[in-house]
Write the C-alpha cells for this entry.
Amino acid sequence: MATRKTTNGAPRGASSGATGSARTTGVRDAVIVGGNRIPFSRAGKRYADASNSEMFTAALEGLVARFGLQGERLGEVVGGAVLKHSRDFNMIRESVLGSSLSPQTPAFDLQQACATGLEATINVANKIRLGQIDSGVAGGTDTISDAPIAVSDPLRRALLAAQHAKTLQGRLKALAQVRPGDLKPLTPATDEPRTGLSMGEHQAITTARWGISREAQDELALASHQNLTAAWDSGFFDDLVTPFRGLTRDDNVRADTSLEKLASLKPVFGKSLATSAEVPAVPTMTAGNSTPLTDGASTVLLASTDWAQAHDLPVLARFVDAETAAVDFVHGHEGLLMAPVHAVPRLLARNGLTLADFDFVEIHEAFASTVLTTLAAWEDADYCKNELGLPGPFGSVDRARINVNGSSLAAGHPFAATGGRIVATAAKLVAQRAAETGKPARALVSVCAAGGLGATAIIESV
Amino acid sequence: MTDSYTRLVNAGLGKTLSKRLGLPRPAVLRRYRPGDPLTVGPVLVLSDAASKPEADAVAQALLRWEVDVRREPTDDARWGAVVLVLTEAARPTDVSDAVLAVGSVLRRVAPNGRVVTVSRALTDDDPPELAATRGGVEGFLRSLAKELRAGATGNGIVLTDGAAADSTSALATLRFFLSARSAFVDGQLLPVGPADAGADESGTATDRPLAGKVAVVTGAARGIGVDIAKTLARDGATVVCVDVPAAGEGLTRTANAVGGTALQLDVTADDAGTRILEHARSRHGGVDIVVHNAGILRDKLLANMKPQQWDAVIAVNLASQLRINAQLLEAGVEGLRIVSLASIAGIAGNRGQTNYGFSKAGVIGHTRATAPLVARLGGTANAVAPGFIETEMTRTIPTVTRELGRRASSLQQGGLPVDVAEAIVFLVSPAAAGVNGEVLRVCGQSWLGR
Amino acid sequence: MTATRPATVAGGPLRIETLPSLPGLAGLYARGAAASGRIAAGRALPHLPVVGTALEPGDGPLALPDVAYRVSGVETDGLAPHLRDYQRLVHEPASDTMPAGYLHVLAFPLATAVMVRGDFPLPLLGMVHLSNAVEHRGPVRVGDLLEVRAWAENLRPHRRGVQIDLVAEVWPDGGGERALWRGVSTYLAKGFHLPDGSPSGVDGSPERAPSGTWAPPLPTGRWALGPGTGRAYGAVSGDRNPIHLSALSAKAFGYPRAIAHGMYTAARALADVGNARGDAYRWTVHFGRPVLLPGTVDVAVTPAEDGTGFRYVGWNAPRRLKHFEGGVVPLDA
C-alpha cells in the first residue's frame, strides 16, 4: 500500500540503514532486575493532589521494598518529568533523599518528552555496560492534575525586573509595566511549540496520510483494554505495581468496552482535515482510540549481572541495545510521531535482527493510529526505500505479538512514566516466555515522543 | 498508645477521682526496649522443699543473666519478680509453705512485677496425689494472677516430658515471662518440653535472638502484621513481608521500615506456599520462620451469613495456612518455626463470628496436628491467641462494646499489637524449640474463654 | 525585481528629499529610551497621522508625489531591545540579525511619511494591504549604520479601485552597490479610478474563491491568535491602524472584530521557515481574507514542489477561507 503522499518526494536527512558497528562489543551486560510503578490514574482523579515527586518517591519506595534495597547505595537513579515545576529542579535526587535508599545514592533528572522513561533506562543501562555503575534505577513521573502553572512572560519579566531593581522606584517602575491581561496564568500546553498543533492534530494528519481507518484504530484500542484487563486479572502486575493513594489498578482500563461503544465516540482530532485537498479524510481519532491525560510514575531496577547475583536478586532480562531517532516534522515532511519508524531499522541492522526475530513488540500507544502507521510504514516499499533508505519493505509484525498485555490506550500515559512501564513489562514477558519454552525470548520496545523524537530498545531474556 | 482511659486514671485528678469512685484503674504496662533490665527489681526464687535443687538451678541461670537473685523473702525489697518452683512437689500439702511465702511478699511486688510458677505437667501415669498437686498449681496461678495489681502478671511454666527447670526452653520461657516482652500475657500456663539437641540457649539472653533467620509474615501491610514484622526485624530476622497486591502501599511501608522485602501475594493462591518459598530461597537463601497473620473479618449472624462471607473467612484465615504449611513441608524445609494467629474468639466464641470462630478454632486445631509433622524436620508450630488488642480494626467497634472488651480482663485494658508480636517472636526464637503445638494467649487474662 | 535607485514615477525623475531622521522612530531607540521593553516601545512611537489629507475620489486626476524620502546615518545601536520584542512577537529566534519583517517595521514610518504627504492622492486610512514582496539581500545587524529610502510608485488600476506600490529600501549608510533590503508593499484604494479609465487589471491578489469552496492542504501548524495580537504588533511596529487595535475601533471601519496585521502573519510564516531561508531570501505574501481576532489560523509551511525555498499558506479551517499565501525563496547572496 502506498497511500502516503509526501510533501516532498525526495528523501531528506540521513536515513541509511546500518550505521554503527554490529553489536557493541567489549562491554558487559546490563540486566533488568525488575520494575515497580504505581497504578496509572486519569488526570484529576485519585492522584489529583499528588505531586510528581510524591508519585516518583512512591514508585521508588515500592521498588526498594520489592528488592530489599533499604539503605543500599545504588550507582545512580535517573528519571524525569515532562511537566515539571521549577521548584523540582532536582526532583529525582530529592525523591532519593525521601526514599529508603542510601542518601549516598546519586541521581539526576533528564527529560525527553514521552521517551523520558526509556531514555533514562538507556542511560542507566549504558553506564552499567561501561562499568561506571553496577546498579541503577531508571524511571519517570508525570502529573497533569498537579501540573505547574506559569505566569505570562510579561508578568514574569516585570517581576524579575522588579526583583533585580535596586531602588523602590525601580521596582515600582518595573511593576507598573504589568497589564491586566498579563495576570492570566499559563497552563502547560501539549501543543508542539514549533507548529502550534497538538500532538493529536499532528497524528491526525499522519493518520490521514496513511489512510488508517477508524475501525482499525478502534480494534486496536479494544485489544489494548482487553489485554491489559487480562494481564491484571492474571496477576501479571502483582510484582510490577504497588498501589498508591488507595488505587490498586490502572483506573483508565475499561474491561467492559466494546467496538460498539468505541464506534459511538465522536472524533476529537483532525476534524478540520475533512476539507483538505491533499488527503480528504473523515476524522477518525476519538477519545477512545487516543490516550487520555494520566498521572503516574514508574521505575526500573537495572544492574550488572554480578551485582544482581551478589545481592541475590532475580534477573528478568538483558537490556541489549537502544537507538533514538528524530524526524523533520515541522514542515510536514514526516509525521510527528514517526521517529521510531526510523530508529528501529537502524537498531535492528546494528544487531543483525529482523522484525521476525521478536517474540514481543511493545509499541507505545500514544494513539491507536501511531501503532498502525508505524506498522503500515514498515510494510510500505516506497516509504522504506525513500525515507528509510532500505532496499524494500522493512517487514511485518504479527499482530499477536504487539502489546500483548495492553499498552497506553488502556493503561493511560503519564508521559515520563510510560517508558518504565513498558520496559518492566517487556522484561517480564521475555522472562516468562523463556521460562515456558526454555528458549531465549526477545522484545522490541518503541516509544514515540513530542518534538519528532523516538526511542527504541531491544530486551532479551537471559 | 495506651488507651485514653488508662492515661486518664493514671495521672492527676483522674487518678484521684477513679480511686475514690472505685473505678477500674488499669496500669500503664512496661514494655520491652532493647537494653532495659530484665525485671523491675530483684527476683525472689522460692520452692517447696523437694524442688530446692531445681530452684537452685533456676537461680543459677538468673545469675548468669546478671539478675539480682534472692532466696529468702525479706521486707526490704520491691520485688521485680517471684519465681515459684514446684516441680518436685508430690503431695498437695508440700506446697503450703512456698505459696504462703509468696503471699507474704505480694504486697511488695513492684508495679509491672512478675510471678512465675514452674511446675510439671500431668501425665497419664501420675498417682492421684501427684496429679492433684500438679493440677492444683494451675488453679493457684490463675487465681493469683487475678490478685496481682499495677501491671504485675502471673504465668506458669508447665514442664513436660521430664524437661528440667533449667532446660533451654524452660529458661527461655522463664525469661519471656519475667521480661517486659510478656506485658499482656497474664494467667497463662505454657507447657514446655525438652528442646531438641539442636536448640541452643546462646541467643536467649541477647537482644538479637533471631539474627540470621529469615521470617515470612503474611498480612504485613497493616495492623498487627506491621508490629510482628518490626519486632522480628528488631530481634535480628530478615523479614519477607507478604500481603495481597491491593495492600501493596502499606506493605511497602512495612518492608522499608524493617529492611525486608515486599512480596505482593494473595495467600489464598494455590501456589502461595511455593511462591513464598521461591522468594525466600532466591532472595534470602531460605526460610526459617513463618507467621500466619493474614486474616479477615466478615461478621454476620449465621442466619444472615452469605456463602461468600463464610467462604472468604475460611479461605484466608484457615485454608491458606493449611496449604502453605503443606507446601513448605512438602518442600522439606528444615527447622521451620510456624506461628499462626488464632483468636480468643476461637476459644470462647463470639456472637456474629461463627465464620471467624470456626477459622480461629480451626487454627488451634491444625496447630496441634501440624506440630508433630514440623517437629520431624526440627521445627515447631504454635498459635498465639490475642485477646482485645488496640488496632485499627478494634477502633471501629462501638464504644460500649469496646470498653467492655478492654476492661474485662485482669489487666483491665486492651493489649497492643506489639504484645502479640513479642509472643510470636518468643515462640519462634531458637531457644523456645521445646514449645510445640501450643496456643499462647495474649489477652491480659481475659475473662473470656477457658 | 532588482533594487534600483528611485528613478521615475510615471516616467518622470524622482526628487530626493533628505529628512534629518526617521519620523517617529528616529533616534528613539538609539537614545535607549525604550530600554525597558515592549510597553515603552509602544508608547515611544509617535502617533502617526491616521487621516490623510487626500483628495476625494473623482476629485481630479490621480498622481503620485514625485518625491523619494531618504534618511541617512540611521543608527541601530540602540535597537536591540526593540528587535528582541519584535522577535519574540513573531516567534523569531533571538538574534542581533534583523529578519526581513523587522526591516519592514524599521522603514515603515518613512513609507508612511510618503503616504501622509499633502500631495499623496489616496487616503491612508481605508487602504487595503494586498501584497508584499521583499528582497532581503544579506544580514543587517544591530549596530549597522543604515540609509533608508521610501517612495510610492506604480499607480495602476485594480478591479475594485487603484493600487500603488510603496517601495522602501535599506542601504548601507553612504550607499553601496545595492540595497541590503527592498520591500514593495502593494495597497488598494477602493473606489478610485485612473483618469484614463483603464479597465481593472490584474491585481496580483490571490483569487477569492467563494467561502467554503477552497480546499486547503494539510496543515503543518496552527496559530492561536489572542485578542491582543493586533495591539501587540501595533505597539512594536508602530502601525496603529484602528482596524487592528480593538473590536470597537475595527467596527468603525466595517470589520466585525479587530483583524491581525497582514505583515504579522507573514512574519510568523517567515519565522516558521527558520534557518532554511538562509541570509538572503525573497519573501512574498498575498493577503486574502483578513484574520479576525481572536482567531485560529491553520498554516502549511512546506518546501516548494520545485525544491527551491518554501511556500506557505494560512487559512481558516472551519470556513475554508484563505487568509494569506506566499513564499520564501533563498537568493544567491
Notes: The interface with chain A takes residues 241, 245-249, 251-256, 259-265, 269, 282-285 of chain B (CB under 8 Å). Residues 31-192 of chain B form a domain with the Rossmann fold fold (CATH 3.40.50.720). The CA atoms of residues 273 and 327 of chain B lie 5 Å apart.
